[in-house]
Design brief:
Blueprint lengths: L1 E10 L2 E11 L4 E5 L6 H8 L7 E6 L2 E2 L4 H5 L2 E4 L11 H11 L4 H14 L15 H12 L6 E5 L7 H16 L3 E5 L3 H7 L2 E6 L2 E6 L1 H5 L5 E8 L11 E7 L2 E7 L3 H13 L3 E8 L2 H17 L1
Parallel strand pairs: 3-8, 3-9, 6-7, 7-8
Antiparallel strand pairs: 1-2, 1-4, 4-5, 9-10, 11-13, 11-14, 12-13
Helix pairs in contact: 3-4, 3-5
Bound molecules: adenosine-5'-triphosphate.
Amino acid sequence: MLAVHEVTKRYGTIAANEDVSLVVRSGEVVGLLGHNGAGKTTLVNQVVGIARPDSGSITVDGLDAVARPEQARRHCAVQAQASVPIDGLTPALAVELVGRIRGGNKADVRGRAAARFERLDMTAWKDRPTDKLSGGVKRLVAYCLAVAVPTPVVVLDEPTNDVDPVRRRLLWQEIRREADSGAAVLLVTHNVHEAEHAVDRLVVLEGGRVLTQGTPSQLTAGLRDRLRLELRSSPGRRPAPPPGVEVNDARDGLLNATVSADDAEHVMSWARAAQRNGEIETFAIQPASLEDAYVQLTAAVAEEAAG
Ligand SMILES: Nc1ncnc2c1ncn2[C@@H]1O[C@H](COP(=O)(O)OP(=O)(O)OP(=O)(O)O)[C@@H](O)[C@H]1O
């Protein structure tokens, strides 16, 4: 549904995107991850026709988005990172207006918007002037505007920013629903933890290039025998961790470490004993997460670049 093939985009000497290829199929949510400046927004801008690739191709619903961006854009819903200026309107009116401009039938647009406001628990705000809404609610309204009419491709740039944790969950469900009804969803996010549970596949960009891509479980496969130990020391106590524990971070009484699966049993016994004798308050041993894999991957690239 969305196919990006060997796209390169330079700004002067900066290669914002270099040979980027990815595919988002109908029914899939694909997360685009990467540090600040990795090239995510540049890629999104080219998909929606705001920027033009120097080379490579992009097709949206089978249409050439480089040669005919205006045509391709009609098949694409976009929620940009910047907020949408809709002051003077209410969310319900703004969504209706955008839906009608985009060719939706009035009753359909209204019906879809009302159901979506309900599912996102936003009904209380739908008839309030938007300049009186909080930043998080405005962000949700921007999402509702983007998907006011159904499109084969949906591109979302940081849709969960500023949204409270409860509505963020509702929003992830809503995004999944969009894919389940047939859309190909490309989603830019910095929230690796949330993405792990909400996306089908991930593409990691670094320095404009695709560093890796795959399902969350493929990306964490290399860390299967690595577990994560997190513990909180008791006030004034700093117990030395046992052998086999690789400390990643230790400050303010919180320790984050990596433990090999083979050592997990003796680390667990040590932690239990330390808890019994009052050295630590709480501890948890968990499987390594996508965030661990992401940090490891990007750190390896940074080390390589530093020589
Ligand atoms: N219009 C522009 N002119 C010059 N350089 C640009 C322009 N747009 C982006 N860049 C540069 O291209 C690189 C990629 O930027 P981009 O905004 O795509 O990154 P990003 O991954 O979206 O970052 P963030 O997570 O901070 O939004 C950066 O080095 C940025 O400074």
